[in-house]
Amino acid sequence: MFRRNLAMTTVVALTLMATGAASGVSVASTPRATSQAAARTHPSPSHFTHGRVDNRWFPLRPGNQLVSRGSEDGNRLRDVFKTTYKTKVIDGVTCRVVHDRVFRNGILRERTTDWYAQTKRGTVWYFGEKTTLLNRQGDVVSREGSFRSGRDGAEAGIFMPAHPMVGQSFKQEDYPGHAEDRFTILDLNAHISVPVIESDHALLTKETTVLEPGVLDHKYYVRDIGTVREVTVRGGNESLKLVSVGHVAR
After folding, report:
1. Distance, CA of 163 to CA of 57 (rounded, Å)
2. Could you tell me which of 162, 150, 88, 154 has the C-alpha nearest to residue 125?
C-alpha cells in the first residue's frame, strides 16, 4: 500500500520494543515463525520472464529512478524508487529487485527492497518486500510488513494485470495479519497533472487493506512511466507526486 503511516508504525513499533524490553526479547532481531511450504497461487516459474518487467503501466527498466515529493501531517516526504540491475529468486521465480527509500524532512525513515516478476503474458506479480523502519537516529524500530512469497504462509499477489479493465480487483499482498493490500481499477482515462507529465489517460486505482479498514488510497499510473501520484483520500493526509524520472548507471 501507499508507503505512509510512518508515525503510526513508529508508535506501534515503540510499543512492541517496550514489551520486548520487559521480556528481554529484541523486536528487531526476533525471527519469524518457522517457514512452511504452501501451495503456490502464482503461475509456475516457467511462465515468467526471468526478471524482465515491461508492462507499460508498470515498467521496471534496470537503472530507472523515480523521485516523488509530498507531505504527511505537515512533514516533507521524498520517495526514491530505483529499479536495480539485480534479480533474486523468490518462491522459484526470478524477480526484479527494486529499492524504495522514504525520507521524512530529509532523514531516511524507511528502506524497502521489493521483488517483482512478470509473466510472459504481461501480468506483474509482487513477490514480497523487506521493509525496515528507522527512527531519526537511524536505528531500526520495526520490520513489520515484510514478507516473502512461499514463506510462513505468504503468497505473491498481482500488482498490475497485463490488460487492465475497470472493475478488476486483485490482492497485491497475501500475508494474513501482516500484509494484505488489495486494489481495484477505477478508471483508465483519469486526468492527472504532476510536475513531470499531464495526462487524460491515466490508470486510477483504489487501495485498501483489512489491517487499516478506515484508510483509502488512490494511485495514478501513466503508460511507460509507472506510478505518478499517490494520495490518501480517507483516513490520512499523505500525498506524493512524481517530480523526476532519471537513470542510474550500473
Report:
1. 9
2. 162
Pair 160, 55: CB distance under 8 Å? yes
pLDDT, tens only, 154-203: 999 999 999 999 999 999 999 999 999 999 999 999 999 999 999 999 99
| Amino acid, res. 218 | H
CATH (one of 3.40.720, 2.40.360, 1.10.357, 2.60.40) for 6-12+46-247: 2.40.360
Residue written as grid cell 486505482 = 205
User: What's the pTM value of the predicted model, to 2 decimals?
Assistant: 0.86
In 73-150, at which residue ranges do the beta strands (DSSP E only) sit? 75-90, 93-104, 107-118, 124-134, 140-142, 147-148
- The residue type of 23 is S
- Looking at the chain, which runs of residues are DSSP E strands? 64-72, 75-90, 93-104, 107-118, 124-134, 140-142, 147-148, 155-160, 169-171, 173-174, 181-194, 197-209, 216-222, 226-234, 239-247
Among candidate residues 133, 45, 42, the one with its CA nearest the CA of residue 87: 45
